[in-house]
Each structure stands twice: as structure tokens, then as C-alpha cells.
């Protein structure tokens, strides 16, 4: 499916993975970033996310996932996206993650 001819919007996101790893090496990772532009899907859209986690005890992980369709949260089309997945396998383990993106353009005031 071709992308729109003009840029639409992106979302910021941040979060922590769930804990994983054996015994004293049990740990989690933090991540933050910005999604891709909107990717049309049916009557809604999704975004792609590809980001590295922070670095802990000689390793990091990648998150590569597609968001849910838009979830309305207020007026003027404001919305978020649900995100759930599993990181890459590094250092003998993976981490689950679940989060929601932030609202796009949270400080943009609609014209009156």
C-alpha cells in the first residue's frame, strides 16, 4: 500500500521492558523514541516502531513492532496506540513489553 504523499504525524513513546534473566542477572531495560509516520490500515492507521533498549551488562535488545490502530482519547482526533511485543533474543533471553504511545502533538491548539 503506498504511503500518503504528505507527512501526517508521529508519536513519541517511552517505557520499560518486563524483567527477565536468571537469578542475580534478572533485569529490565528502558527505551524511548518516535514512531514512523502513519501507515494507512482500513479505516484507521498504524505506526512502525524500531528502537534499541538501553545497554545493561554487556547487551541491549531491539524492539521491532507495529502499533495497534488508533485509539481515540478526546476531541479533535487526538489518539494513542497500544503496543505489545517481545524484544530480540540477546544474551540468552528476551523481554516482553507493553505500552501506549503518547498523544500526537499534545500542545497543538486547534484553531478557533
Unreliable spans are none
The secondary-structure class comes to mainly beta
Gap between N and C termini: 35 Å
Number of strands: 10
Q: Which bin fits the share of residues in helices?
A: under 10%
Q: In what order do the strands lie side by side in the largest sheet?
A: 1-2
How would you summarize this macromolecular structure in one to three sentences?
The protein has 112 residues and is mainly β. The protein is built from no helices and ten strands. The relative contact order is 0.24.
Descriptive labels:
single chain, 112 residues, mainly beta, two-stranded antiparallel sheet, 0% helix
Description:
By secondary structure, the chain is mostly beta strands. The chain is built from no helices and 10 strands. It has one domain. The strands form 5 sheets. It has a two-stranded antiparallel ribbon. The protein has a two-stranded antiparallel ribbon with strand order 3-4. Strands 5-6 form a two-stranded antiparallel sheet. Strand 7 and strand 8 (79-80) form a beta hairpin. The chain starts with 11 loop residues before the first strand and ends in a 12-residue tail after the last strand. The mean pLDDT is 92.
Amino acid at each position: 500500500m503506498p504511503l500518503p504523499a504528505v507527512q501526517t504525524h508521529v508519536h513519541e513513546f517511552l517505557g520499560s521492558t518486563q524483567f527477565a534473566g536468571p537469578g542475580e542477572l534478572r533485569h529490565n531495560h528502558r527505551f524511548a523514541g518516535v514512531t514512523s509516520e502513519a501507515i494507512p490500515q482500513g479505516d484507521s492507521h498504524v505506526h512502525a516502531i524500531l528502537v534499541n533498549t538501553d545497554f545493561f551488562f554487556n547487551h541491549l535488545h531491539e524492539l521491532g513492532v507495529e502499533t495497534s490502530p488508533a485509539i481515540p482519547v478526546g476531541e479533535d482526533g487526538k489518539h494513542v496506540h497500544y503496543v505489545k511485543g517481545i524484544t530480540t533474543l540477546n544474551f540468552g533471553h528476551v523481554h516482553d513489553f507493553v505500552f501506549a504511545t503518547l498523544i500526537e502533538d499534545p500542545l497543538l491548539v486547534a484553531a478557533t
